[in-house]
Amino acid sequence: MSLCAPEVGIVLDDLWKSFDGGASYAVQAVSLTIHRGETLVLLGSSGCGKTTTLKMINRLVEPTRGEVWIDGEPARTIDKVALRRRIGYVFQGVGLFPHMTVLENAAIVLRLLGYSRAEREERAARMLALVGLAPEVYGARYPSELSGGQQQRVGVARALASDPEYLLMDEPFGALDAITRESLQDELLRLKQHLRKTIVFVTHDLFEAFRLGDRIAVMHQGRIEQVGAPAELLRQPATPFVRELLARPLRMMERLLNIQQVGAVDGMD
Amino acid sequence: MEWIEFVASRAGELQQKCGEHLMLTVVSTLLAVLLGVPAGILARRLHWLRATVLFVSNVVQTVPSLAMLALLLPLLGIGVVPAMTALTLYALLPIVRNTLVGLQTIPPTVLEAADGLGFTRRQRLLWVELPLILPVLIAGVRTAAVIGVGIATLSAFIGAGGLGDFINRGLALNNTRLVLLGAVPAALLAILIDQLFSLVEQALTPGRKPATLRRRVVVYVSTLAILSVGWSVLPHLAASPAAPRALIRIGTKNFTEQLIIGEVIAQWLEQTTDLRVERRFNLGGTIICHEALVRGDIDLYVEYTGTGLTAILKLPPVSDPQQALTRVRDAYRQQFDLHWLQPLGFNNTYALAVRESDAQRNGWERISDLVASAPRLRAGFTPEFRERPDGYPGLVRAYGLEFGAVRDMDPSLMYRAVAQGAVDVISAFATDGRILAYRLRVLHDDRRYFPPYQAVPVVRGEVLRRHPELRDALEQLANRIDDAAMQRLNYEVDERGRLPHEVAREWLQQFR
Question: A23 vs chain B: nearest CA distance in angstroms?
Answer without folding.
Answer: 25
